[in-house]
């Protein structure tokens, strides 16, 4: 062996000895079940941490004997459960921060449902705090969860709140918005304004008059351009609040799926980098650039720009709309209203979608496609098949489909063959299951939404997410819902029992499989030697808790890099 090689290996051995020095752990957990989520789903008695990494898992006697020193902090779980920090693979951090942190939050995930009258009253109350020259901006109106069913707001309705203050209210799905006449005037949108590219629609009535309803984000842009932007201090505070809220649910890593959607790609990347440079984020973030706002030929940053705390890894497309908003692209018409011929619409032509995807795929970006309806899923899978042509290991690219809501068995098999990893908004079953079954899709299509059972049987991976602000962040809630598939509205019903999976499979979907989906399974997602010590302490063991009660387990602590996260 050459001298240089000998020196290199000597330095390497010395470095490893410093990093993993037996008898000198910083922290040892014991005294409760420790769920590793490793390949065997082992539970162990103790776990040791050193320099932010896991250095030992196993029996209490062996871990303590080999790793405890006088300086080691010994943490007795006292029967509580330790497991990997949760990985939230699909959120909108910036959007949630703006909508919920800076705007009027009208979201209602409890019962009873709102009515038009209660929504208008909430807006009237909020109007009193709108400063001169500002807009009344809100989020969370959901006609599919409003009494009566599908009662949508119009410009005339919002004029009841104010004819002088511009109003912009985003639907719970994020794919629809409602404005008053003052907002239309300021945005310069009138009956003759053409619909914007990318699936945007300024909805008109039978007489050709604007109703105040907007479909898809491209139609929002003229309005957003006229709204005053928050100050940097306001935005930073809102983003930190959103991140802390996620960490309080046990989330240690989250993927923002629409970087650039609010303030432009370069500005939002700069915001994120500034937050992490100040060590002001309590969670890790993986970023996906929002294709709708990417300048042609964008190459300002390269795939995987960043580090283990903040990394930009993908490009996200929106190929259709919302299932509960009746804008997802289906192969057969919606069941609502009765005798409907409407089946939604694709946002892209096949050739345009593929060409755009290929330009970023060839650069090395991971590609993600929001595809709710089966027609949109077909389009995404066909594009992916062309992208992967000749690739002997398609799973290496880990292409994603978001939601995969309305689907068929052949699509599941094709996705597995292509190595595609879907992420399911399991809140579709919980909050909208009754509406899908009884009104929007009919029972046959509704029972197949979020087909985790089929993916498991076909040998594929899947993950679970909130799509916040579409539904609230809460990985334990996702696990509970995926195992039970109970919808919320009484009388409760199990929606598609064959698509349910075991507790262990659901836990993997919010830990190691979600880490795999975002190319981070080498550092997080399971409690194994060498991985980052991203942990969550739970009040109870979810593996031994009745499935319907898992959602009620309290998160006691969240740790990142071997240190507890401060949520203040």
CATH C-level of the domain at 93-224? Alpha Beta
Structure summary, number of beta strands: 25
How far apart are the termini? 54 Å
Largest sheet: 9 strands, mixed
Rg of Cα set: 24 Å
Number of helices: 18
**CATH architectural name of the domain at 93-224:** Roll
Oligomer: single chain
Shape: globular
Could you write a compact summary of the structure shown?
This protein is an alpha/beta fold and 568 residues long.
Molecular structure report:
- By secondary structure, the protein is of the alpha/beta class.
- It is built from 18 helices and 25 strands.
- Strands 6, 15, 16, 17, 18, 19, 20, 21 and 22 form a 9-stranded mixed β-sheet that branches. Strands 7-9-11-12-14-13 form a 6-stranded mixed β-sheet, sandwiched between helices.
- A hairpin with a 2-residue loop joins strand 2 and strand 3 (53-58).
- It is globular and about 80 Å long.
- Mean pLDDT is 95; it is low at 1-18.
């Amino acid at each position: 062996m050459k001298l240089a090689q000998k020196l290199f290996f000597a330095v390497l051995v010395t470095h490893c000895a410093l990093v993993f020095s037996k008898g000198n752990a910083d922290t040892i957990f014991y005294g409760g079940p420790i769920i590793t989520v490793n390949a065997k789903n082992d539970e162990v008695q103790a776990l040791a941490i050193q320099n932010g990494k896991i250095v030992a898992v196993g029996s209490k006697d062996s871990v303590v004997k080999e790793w405890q020193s006088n300086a080691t902090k010994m943490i007795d779980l006292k029967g509580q459960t330790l497991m990997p920090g949760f990985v939230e693979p699909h959120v909108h951090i910036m959007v949630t921060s703006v909508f919920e942190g800076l705007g009027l939050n009208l979201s209602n995930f409890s019962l009873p449902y709102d009515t038009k009258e209660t929504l208008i009253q909430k807006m009237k109350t909020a109007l009193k705090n709108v400063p001169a020259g500002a807009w009344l901006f809100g989020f969370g109106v959901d006609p599919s969860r409003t009494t009566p069913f599908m009662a949508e707001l119009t410009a005339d309705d919002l004029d009841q709140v104010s004819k002088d203050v511009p109003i912009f209210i985003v639907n719970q799905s994020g794919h629809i918005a409602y404005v008053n006449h003052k907002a239309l005037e300021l945005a310069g949108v009138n009956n003759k304004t053409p619909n914007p590219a990318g699936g945007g629609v300024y909805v008109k009535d039978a007489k050709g008059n604007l109703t105040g309803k907007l479909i898809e984000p491209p139609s929002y842009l003229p309005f957003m351009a006229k709204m005053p932007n928050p100050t940097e201090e306001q935005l930073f505070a809102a983003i930190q609040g959103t991140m802390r809220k996620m960490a309080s649910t046990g989330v240690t890593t989250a993927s923002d799926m629409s970087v650039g959607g609010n303030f432009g790609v370069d500005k939002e990347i700069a915001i994120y980098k500034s937050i992490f440079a100040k060590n002001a984020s309590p969670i890790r973030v993986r970023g996906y650039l929002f294709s709708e706002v990417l300048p042609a030929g964008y190459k300002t940053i390269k795939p995987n720009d960043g580090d283990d705390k903040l990394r930009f890894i993908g490009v996200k497309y929106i190929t259709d709309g919302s299932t509960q908003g009746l804008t997802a692209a289906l192969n057969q018409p919606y069941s609502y209203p009765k005798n409907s011929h409407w089946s939604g619409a694709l946002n892209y032509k096949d050739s345009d979608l593929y060409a755009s995807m290929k330009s970023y795929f060839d650069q090395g970006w991971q590609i993600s496609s929001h595809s709710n309806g089966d027609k949109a899923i077909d389009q995404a899978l066909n594009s992916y098949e062309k992208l992967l042509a000749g690739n002997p290991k398609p799973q290496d690219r880990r292409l994603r489909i978001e939601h995969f809501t309305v689907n068929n068995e052949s699509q599941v098999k094709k996705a597995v063959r292509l190595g595609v990893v879907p992420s399911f908004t399991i809140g579709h079953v919980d909050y909208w299951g009754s509406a899908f079954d009884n009104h929007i899709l009919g029972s046959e299509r509704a029972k197949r939404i979020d087909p985790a059972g089929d993916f498991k049987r076909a040998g594929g991976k899947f993950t679970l997410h909130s799509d916040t602000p579409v539904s609230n962040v809460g990985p334990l809630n996702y696990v509970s819902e995926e195992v039970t598939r109970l919808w919320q509205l009484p009388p409760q019903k199990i929606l598609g029992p064959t698509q349910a999976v075991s507790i262990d499979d659901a836990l993997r979907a919010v830990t190691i499989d979600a880490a795999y989906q975002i190319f981070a399974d080498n550092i997080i997602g399971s409690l194994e030697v060498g991985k980052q010590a991203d942990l969550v302490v739970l009040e109870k063991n979810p593996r031994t808790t009745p499935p319907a009660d898992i959602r009620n387990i309290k998160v006691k602590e969240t740790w990142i890099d071997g240190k507890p996260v401060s949520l203040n």
